[in-house]
């Protein structure tokens, strides 16, 4: 599937044009949320079609066929087929998603098929976060996806935020339903419906549950991983006896996300607090991790919310305290979604495709046997298998690509496109000398190393060293890029200049919601967060010139 | 929540009365499928209500409160509160689901909340199967949940089977959709839509994907785990170059399910082939594992389908063979769902609650410190922690319940209800003698053993031995029960007599579809399967008296 097809998708269920461009509160534990959505991808074509038209389909098949058959030539064509990142970042992104076979468009406008390689990245994310949540006493559960419409209306801000983008089930088993059912956009309402039955006394608190599931939000402008009608995520929901505990939980979870982004994904995110108008619909306070993409746009990559007693009061989620008085619980919710995969692509990718941080890479090392004469094959394959075993024994995720139908050159491109951090080459001469060659995905020719010993322990140690270096290198590179592109501003004019250059603008902020909206209207930049890490003060509000307690970051965003 | 409330649930979205009771093909890779659905649970009350009425809710809270506060007395009340299995199997089941906190009703009729303890059983199931699938070369992926209605109609039998129980999204983002979208009941159609784009040549085959997801089927008679409007499952979908490979794959996967059921869940299932009219809507052939529940009813606990080229032809899923000729792919699909948890409960549970097979138990061993004098607490807790560490080091899933607010007796009941296979008791005298006490969940007092050494290696070996014995014991008990309750029949009268006694009837079968329907109408028993393991022939058809190539099993079922 070509990038332009990816960008267009097929237009099955036509949605409405985006109703209004007015600012409204951010409505999700959603990493997906940001109230300004710039049309990065052309909107869905108006013609409805079930599947690619026959001609298109045929072209695709031919293209794929050619690519495969031509693969023998060395795959340079495949490499050139990715739009350079510097030329058109948006097209580059769609090319990488398509060519690394991470995702494909579903038949319904705005939906996405997560292909096996893309899904394996999600499994890496799940594996880390799920273990971390469990260490913190969170238990997984599953709440029904279909929610009575009346639930959504119980919390006033929540319904205002979510109503415009709900998918509704109105028919079931061949009959019209009496009340439409909401296809879960997030689960605070149904979780509180259950919590109100499960929580009786202070002894039941804290209660911490999480679910891994799909959610739907009827978005108009979609983009694979970054913003889709349906996405996968985890949503954690907790209830506590005191406001302090709920606040601590919301902060703890944004810390978990920060550590995950920095340590595992090599994404040097900026954690901070959202402004009131950018907070989740129904939250007292929203925390976020903001990541800088390769085009300097901000991506909200995870959020946690202190919900206060807003949902508890709407749903009667109360507990008996030690004095036997009824009290509403204090709550938090928090989520990370498949959007994070988009963040990884746009943080680390280059003109050769994806670059995966080793700790999250489903395949950390690919071993490529190089065989020119058939008689060499058994010895080379045997050596490759021994290297594979050595890496596996050291806990390294490794794959041997011994497909005889493709050339080594084609395979190099193939696995570079997929971002595998380390490549190992082994041919007959290597076998003879008891060594092999390693190549780093994050470097060009200078990352190639000959004469790496094949002895199991030494080989594994060498490869583990490379993986550690690459992990650190990607993080440093991303951090340097981020820091270069954050500009301290003292006035609104400086902010406008910084944003016009594509930078993030950081400056004192103590102005009104109206002023914040004005910045958005005039610059398309939004207040991303008040970072937890504040530069030394005092600060002056860039808009009003009055003293400001904090600096905020403004940026254009996904 | 009391059992009667569980049985009734709250009636939110009213569905229609079951349209007709006519026999129609079984419609899913669904373990949930069986075309005879007997009203085991009273149908939903007609009154719509969002939540338990205030009075009900208050009663619930009081009950729960009493249970908690009264817990200090030893929990005998809690034990007595489960309806004896022999008295009312159906009520017993609902009691266990409620009291072991496995699931709860969702607000929408027929939906279920999977509570953390129930979900942890699902995680055990996932963990085993997911690893097994990966060993077999299956890759996980994710396909959109919303499917264009037109897709469902492309395969004639498929639409006939599924149309009556679809949930439809007709509104999105505040607008009516041009075409309703089906909330996935199963994914053969959308998978083929994508496969037709991904598969070009024989080199792309076999293609094997699986997804873990939720599906919806608008069922009228629901029951937690066993049959719910929404359930969780895995659905595998494969495409092959030849009919032989697709057949081998369908057989391989039913073998995986059989091994899982027998080895992990201690459920001695009968694997076999479904009759034509009981097969999946769109399959050439359906394989099933049939389990006998504690009330002798059959439960279809997993299925795999040889889909032939039915979906491939409907969706144009073709490949170029080595002679460059276009050929349709040959396919299989296969699934196991949260229904399996219902199967475990109804296979192994007893009057004290759940009994979990050790290999699937989220907690295999619970350690209960017994402290009467406060001064003993530190030494006893220290001993408990040492035992926990010893078990953990041996790879045993262990929990110490050191909650000071509950008595040991209350805890015994609590963990027996939850089916934890082994209990370890440790008190001051044990500490003094360097020993502890173990108790088996599958036995009464005779399963209690004093003087078990506390030394780490010896303790872990002893406990592991108990777990192995319990695993084997549960499987043997279930197998003996099953074998006692299968009756060989030679005539239709014998079949009727066996079914009337609640048994499974096994006999030669070579009669018509009409005859099969007649059996169902007259006895409520369905043809569960032609077992792979056939008794030595020759066989005579119990209905027609003619020679029969195979015996079939008939039984009443869930």
Polypeptide structure, described:
Chains A, B: It is an enzyme of class 6 (ligase). Chains A, B: GO terms for molecular function: ATP binding; proline-tRNA ligase activity. Chains A, B: Keywords: Aminoacyl-tRNA synthetase, ATP-binding, Ligase, Nucleotide-binding. Chains A, B: Residues 1-30, 43-83 are annotated as: Disordered. Two copies of one chain form a homodimer. With 558 residues, the first copy, chain A, is of the alpha+beta class. The first copy, chain A, has four domains: 38-69, no CATH class; 112-145 and 185-348, Bira Bifunctional Protein, Domain 2 (BirA Bifunctional Protein, domain 2, 2-Layer Sandwich); 365-482, 3-Layer(aba) Sandwich (Rossmann fold); 485-555, C-terminal domain of ProRS (Translation Initiation Factor IF3, 2-Layer Sandwich). In chain A, 36% of the residues lie in helices and 24% in strands. In chain A, strands 3-7-8-14-11-10-9-22-25-21-20 form an eleven-stranded mixed sheet, with helices on both faces. The first copy, chain A, has a five-stranded mixed sheet with strand order 16-15-17-18-19, sandwiched between helices. In chain A, α12 (377-393) crosses α15 (456-484). Chain A is globular, with a radius of gyration of 25 Å. The two termini of chain A are 24 Å apart. Residues 1-79 of chain A have low confidence and may be disordered. At the A-B interface, α2, β2, α5, β3 and β4 of A face α2, β2, α5, β3 and β4 of B.
């Amino acid at each position: 599937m070509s990038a332009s097809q990816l960008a267009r998708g097929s237009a099955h269920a036509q949605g409405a044009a985006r109703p209004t461009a007015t600012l409204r509160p951010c409505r999700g534990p959603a990493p997906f949320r940001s109230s300004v959505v710039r049309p990065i991808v052309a909107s869905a074509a108006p013609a409805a079609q079930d599947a690619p038209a026959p001609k298109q389909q045929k072209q695709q098949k031919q293209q794929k066929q050619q690519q495969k058959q031509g693969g023998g030539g060395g795959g340079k064509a495949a490499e050139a087929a990715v739009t350079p990142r510097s030329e058109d970042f948006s097209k580059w992104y769609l090319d990488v998603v398509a060519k690394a076979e991470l995702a494909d468009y579903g038949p319904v406008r705005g939906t996405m098929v997560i292909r096996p390689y893309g899904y394996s990245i999600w499994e890496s994310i799940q594996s880390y976060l799920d273990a971390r949540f469990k260490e913190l006493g969170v238990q997984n559960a599953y709440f029904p996806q279909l929610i009575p419409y009346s639930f959504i209306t119980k919390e006033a801000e929540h319904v205002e935020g979510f109503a415009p983008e709900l998918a509704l089930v109105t028919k079931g088993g061949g009959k019209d339903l009496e009340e439409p059912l909401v296809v879960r956009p997030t689960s605070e309402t149904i979780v509180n419906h259950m919590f109100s039955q499960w929580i009786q006394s202070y002894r039941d608190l804290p209660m911490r549950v999480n679910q891994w599931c799909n959610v739907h939000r009827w978005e108009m402008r979609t983009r694979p991983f970054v913003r889709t009608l349906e996405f996968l995520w985890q949503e954690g929901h907790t209830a506590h006896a005191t406001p302090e505990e709920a606040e601590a939980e919301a902060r703890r979870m944004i810390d978990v996300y920060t550590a995950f982004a920095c340590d595992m994904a090599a994404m040097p995110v900026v954690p901070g607090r959202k402004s009131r108008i950018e907070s989740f619909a129904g939250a007292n306070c929203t925390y976020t991790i903001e990541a800088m993409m390769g085009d300097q746009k901000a991506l909200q990559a995870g959020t946690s919310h202190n919900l206060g007693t807003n949902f508890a009061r709407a749903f009667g989620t109360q507990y008996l305290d030690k004095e036997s008085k009824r009290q509403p619980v204090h709550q938090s919710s928090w989520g990370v979604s498949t959007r994070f995969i988009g963040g990884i692509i746009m943080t680390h990718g280059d003109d050769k495709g994806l670059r995966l941080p080793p700790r999250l890479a489903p395949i950390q090392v690919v071993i490529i046997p190089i065989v020119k004469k058939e008689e060499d094959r058994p010895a080379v394959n045997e050596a490759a298998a021994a290297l594979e075993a050595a890496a596996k024994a050291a806990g390294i995720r490794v794959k041997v690509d011994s497909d005889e139908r493709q050339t080594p050159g084609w395979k190099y491109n193939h696995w570079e496109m997929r971002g595998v951090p380390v490549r190992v080459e082994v041919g007959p001469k290597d076998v003879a000398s008891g060594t092999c060659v390693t190549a780093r995905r994050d470097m060009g020719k200078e990352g190639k190393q000959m004469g790496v010993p094949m002895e199991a322990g030494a080989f594994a140690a060498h490869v583990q060293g490379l993986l550690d270096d690459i992990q650190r290198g990607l993080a440093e590179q991303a951090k340097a890029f981020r820091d270069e592109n954050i500009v301290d501003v003292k006035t609104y004019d400086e902010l406008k200049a910084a944003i016009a250059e594509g930078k993030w603008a950081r400056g004192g902020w103590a102005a009104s919601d109206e002023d914040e909206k004005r910045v958005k209207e005039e610059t398309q930049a939004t207040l991303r967060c008040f970072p937890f890490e504040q530069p030394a003060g005092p600060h002056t509000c860039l808009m009003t010139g009055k003293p400001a307690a904090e600096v905020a970051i403004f940026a254009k965003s996904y």
